[in-house]
Design goal:
Strand order of the largest sheet of chain A: 6-7-8-3-9-10
Structural class of chain B: mainly alpha
Largest sheet of chain B: none
Radius of gyration of chain B: 23 Å
Number of strands of chain B: 0
Number of helices of chain A: 10
Shape of chain A: globular
Shape of chain B: globular
Oligomer: heterodimer
Helix content of chain A: 40-55%
Low-confidence stretches of chain A: none
Order of helices and strands of chain B: HHHHHHHHH
Strand content of chain B: under 5%
Strand content of chain A: 15-25%
Radius of gyration of chain A: 18 Å
Largest sheet of chain A: 6 strands, mixed
Largest interface: A-B, 23 and 17 residues
Mean pLDDT of chain A: 87
Low-confidence stretches of chain B: none
């Protein structure tokens, strides 16, 4: 479980996160939604310590993460798999080397065991016969899937995804969403997904947090989101054609 | 009145200069602090020695072996040019001809093979390091390393530093040899000096400590190139434009600090 309490973050005097408190539950796909520039990525990066919050607390179970020194943070981070918006695969490595990298770094597995694990992770994300390709040779969807494979290679307890389906076609986006949901349920991990895609919300949103201008405006699940009386949330939700249709069908 | 007017003008100039100086000092101290913190991270204990070993071997090839060609070509022609210039500047019956060989040898050992080669490598290796690390920063690859629990500074910079600190002295020795050969080849072919005179000159009054001095400078310059270029790349913010700017800054600052430390080390080691 990840708990955020009264989180504040500002850049050059401009407040980007203001008094955000939320609990992300294990075994569920927790979604942070909001418009572009609403503070979703800043919240995600503040949770994992890539950005230092100005105030507030971030708890990983019973550990106050943002008060740890960088060595202690590193130990916690070994339990976190993170999928970045641009995939962040290492350009100089092949697909296999990318997925194997955390295993090389933090395990004492033999090369054979590592290759088996890499093969398992790549199979899990439906990547076949691409081990020797470099990231430059992959499509956007494949890059995201390889990044997921790398993120799960060490069996993480937490999976954080920053806009996992941005820039992807709807079918590939749905595939990535389903994959994230399956992995979350299969390994009972705490997953947080940043998105502004309403398809993802309706597909995998078990717990949803809506952020606008750095303020948490609403919290609920995908069944409650369409009945909300939060004006900002309604504007966000009903800007999407699919959601409009859903409402009309109802 | 004129005196008072001049005083006021001076005060106004001071008022303009002081804030700029304060900002410059403030920025310099911030950069110095970040540089020291970065070096602290670079020299912390590696997570896994075997991974760092493989990475260091890659850097030996990338930063070391790949620099042999350019070093060899430049050394040959610079050695030739130094010898010819020495010959034309000592065209006097009072000076024995073998002094051309001696001048060529000392110029190459004392200054050219360490300092000039370092300046050239600052351009080649320094821009390479800054753009590589800078691109990794703006594409979140460094964040990805940090998220895995890897000490990104150490993983990315330490192997480069070891590779250049170990390999650059070999480049310097190679440059000395090729530079002297270049001087000998061109001067004897053009009939400026006989081969015997040149060889006598390069053996005459040889001080082996000059080689040590040259190698010490090379190691210090290698550290300057790698650390400053890595620093510029590691703290890039923005996109491809900023990566390009960081690459340019890496070359400029490395070159300036190489020249500064050249003076300091010469005073310390040769005085």
């Amino acid at each position: 479980m990840i708990t955020v309490k009264n989180l504040y973050k500002s850049f050059n005097g401009r407040e980007v996160l203001s008094d955000v408190s939320v609990t992300f539950e294990p075994g569920k796909t927790n979604l942070i939604i909001g418009r572009s520039g609403s503070g979703k990525t800043v919240l995600l990066k503040s949770i994992v310590g890539l950005l230092e919050p100005d105030g507030g607390e971030v708890w990983f179970n019973d550990i106050l993460f943002n008060r740890l020194d960088f060595r202690e943070k590193r130990e916690i981070r070994k339990q976190i798999g993170m999928l970045f918006q641009g995939s962040a695969l290492f350009d100089s490595m092949t697909v296999e080397q990318n997925v194997r990298f955390p295993l090389d770094m933090f395990t004492n597995m033999t090369l054979k065991e590592k290759k088996q694990r890499v093969s398992f992770c790549l199979d899990r994300v439906n990547i076949h016969n691409a081990e020797k390709l470099t990231p430059a040779e992959l499509s956007g969807g494949m890059k995201k899937r390889v990044a997921i494979a790398r993120a799960i290679s060490l069996n993480p307890r937490y999976l954080l995804c920053d806009e996992p389906n941005s820039g992807l076609d709807p079918m590939t986006a749905t595939l990535i969403d389903s994959l994230i949901k399956e992995i979350t349920e299969e390994y009972c991990i705490t997953t947080i997904v940043n998105t502004h895609d309403m398809n993802s919300v309706m597909e995998i949103g078990e717990k949803i947090v809506f952020i606008s201008d750095g303020v948490k405006c609403w919290e609920g699940n995908k069944n409650e989101i369409l009945k909300s009386d939060c004006r900002l949330l309604n504007e966000f939700v009903f800007a999407n054609v699919l959601a409009k249709q859903l409402i009309e069908n109802k | 009145m004129e005196f008072v007017g001049a005083g006021l003008r001076f005060n106004r100039q001071i008022l303009v200069i002081l804030p700029a100086l304060r900002i410059f000092m403030f920025r310099f101290l911030i950069n110095l602090g970040n540089y020291v913190i970065l070096l602290g991270k670079v020299f912390s204990k590696p997570e896994k020695a075997s991974v760092y070993y493989h990475q260091t071997m890659k850097e030996f090839v990338f930063l070391g072996l790949n620099s042999i060609g350019i070093t060899a070509i430049i050394s040959f022609f610079m050695g030739a040019a130094i010898t010819l210039q020495t010959a034309y500047n000592t065209e006097n019956p009072i000076y024995p001809a073998y002094l051309i060989g001696l001048g060529c040898r000392d110029s190459i050992i004392l200054e050219f093979s360490s300092t000039i080669v370092a300046l050239i490598l600052a351009g080649k290796v320094g821009s390479n390091i800054a753009s590589e690390i800078g691109t990794m920063r703006v594409t979140e690859q460094i964040d990805a390393l940090e998220m895995m629990g890897v000490n990104s500074a150490s993983y990315l910079i330490l192997p480069k530093m070891i590779a250049t600190l170990v390999f650059n002295p070999f480049l310097t020795l190679m440059s000395i040899i090729i530079g002297i050969v270049g001087g000998w080849f061109v001067s004897t072919r053009l009939g400026v000096i006989t081969s015997e005179q040149f060889i006598y000159g390069i053996q005459y009054a040889f001080i082996p400590y000059y080689i040590t001095y040259s190698l010490i400078k090379t190691v210090v310059f290698a550290f300057i190139i790698t650390s400053i270029s890595s620093y510029q790349g590691y703290f890039v913010k923005g996109g491809s434009l900023e990566v390009g700017q960081a690459s340019t800054k890496a070359v400029v600052f490395s070159s300036v600090f190489i020249l500064l430390f050249n003076v300091i080390l010469t005073q310390l080691l040769l005085s």
